[in-house]
Amino acid sequence: MSRIFSRWKASLAEFRTDKAGIAFTFYICLLALSAIPAPAAEPAARSLSESEKAAAKIMARIKLPPGFKISLFASDMLSPRQIAISPSGTVFVGTRVDKEGVVYALPDRNKDGRADEVIVVAGSMRQPNGVALKDGALYVAEINKISRFDNIEKDLKHPPRPVVIAEMPSDTHHGWKYIRFSPDGKLFWPQGAPCNVCEPSKPVYGTLNFLDASGKSQNFARGIRNTVGFDWQPGSGVLWFTDNGRDNLGDDRPPDELNSAPKAGMHFGFPYRWGDNQKDPEFGDKAPADLVDKFAPPAMCLGAHVASLGMRFYTGKSFPKAYQGNVFIAEHGSWNRSKKSGYRITMATIKGGKAVKYEPFATGWLDDASQDVGGRPVDLVVASDGSLLVSDDYAGNIYRISYQGK
């Protein structure tokens, strides 16, 4: 290149005004320009898959507070439900598909807020709704059992054989499980009532339980119709959980509930009481005398039939302080209300260990005017960067909600 410009300079020094001189100079200029490398071509934009296009249409409907953004973490999954994130950042997702249910692993190796691929790590399972992680092992809850996959991240595409650690009732009505490890290492699991409303025919129905160190199940709380989401409040260590109210009492009752259980042995009213100690019209007068004055009221009454499922205390730092320490709830949405309710994410403000406010946070999966449903939030979890990951079993997506600032 330097030789070319030296020749160019010399030729200009001998520049003549005749046609030959001008032609020679022009030739040298062209030669110099041709030696300059062309700018690198920008990579072609990746075309979106059909599932990504569908997800983009859904996300365009979502309304969030100022400064928040929703993006797609993963798509094209079958009924994604509970989410668990490993310390290395791999996202595991359960599904609620009978007999052919699978569990997904979604690695994000470059930490760009988007799953690199969707990997099936377990299959041919009975509604493997629940997933949890501890000491490098993945725990999966099906309808009738909990299994453990040791050292799951060693090779996601060649997972280990599962080891069954606990057997559960095989009832499918409210039989899908949500599981979590408590701060002291106990694996909590629920057993919903096998009915819309009924007195439990077995002590295990309508309960929240845990596996002790020996693998034996112990009861923690009763009178719970069907909880599909629970978490422990940071600092106090108190367990909070959602509960779905019964059906067939009209559009506006009973409410779903957000409950707080500061100690073991509490009874939360089902099937005798709901909401703020309201008697159930079928079972209210059948309550055992020794329980009548002991039913625990809800920490907060939620919307009727909103199907409150996954809930988490926000433990991240990237959301503004007004959101930190509060409870986010995934409302799956009503199925038999004359005007649909739910289909959103709400937030319960917690002050002094009490729920003091309940309000929408992310809406738009339901179009109120047309009643068109675009998605149904199921579970949410706080990622290491402070964003919320949200599963949607209707659209088959995992969304990422982050705060970008005003």
Overview of this protein structure:
- This protein has three helices and 27 strands.
- The chain is mainly beta and 406 residues long.
- The chain has two domains: 2-35; 52-403, 6 Propeller (Neuraminidase), CATH 2.120.10.30.
- The strands form seven sheets. A five-stranded mixed β-sheet has the order 10-11-12-13-17, with no helix packed on it.
- A hairpin with a 5-residue loop joins strand 25 and strand 26 (388-392).
- Helix 1 packs antiparallel against helix 2.
- The chain is globular.
Q: How are the SSEs placed, and which strands pair?
A:
Elements (H helix, E strand, L loop, with lengths): L1 H12 L5 H17 L14 H10 L8 E7 L5 E6 L5 E5 L5 E6 L12 E7 L4 E5 L2 E5 L3 E5 L13 E5 L12 E2 L5 E5 L15 E5 L5 E6 L7 E3 L6 E5 L11 E7 L4 E2 L5 E2 L3 E2 L20 E5 L3 E6 L13 E5 L12 E8 L2 E9 L14 E6 L5 E5 L4 E7 L3
Parallel strand pairs: 13-17
Antiparallel strand pairs: 1-27, 2-3, 3-4, 4-5, 6-7, 7-8, 8-9, 10-11, 11-12, 12-13, 14-15, 15-16, 16-20, 18-19, 21-22, 22-23, 23-24, 25-26, 26-27
Helix pairs in contact: 1-2
Brief account:
This protein is mainly beta. The chain contains three helices and 27 strands.
Please tell me how large the radius of gyration is: 29 Å
* Whole-number mean pLDDT: 91
Instruction: Give start-end ranges of low-pLDDT stretches.
Output: 1-33
N- to C-terminal distance? 50 Å
Q: For the report, how would you describe the main beta sheet? A: 5 strands, mixed
Tally of individual helices: 3
Order of helices and strands: HHHEEEEEEEEEEEEEEEEEEEEEEEEEEE
Order of strands, widest sheet: 10-11-12-13-17
Which class of the largest domain in CATH terms?
Mainly Beta
Record field, number of beta strands:
27
Total number of distinct structural domains: 2
The computed structural class is mainly beta
The CATH architecture of the largest domain can be given as 6 Propeller
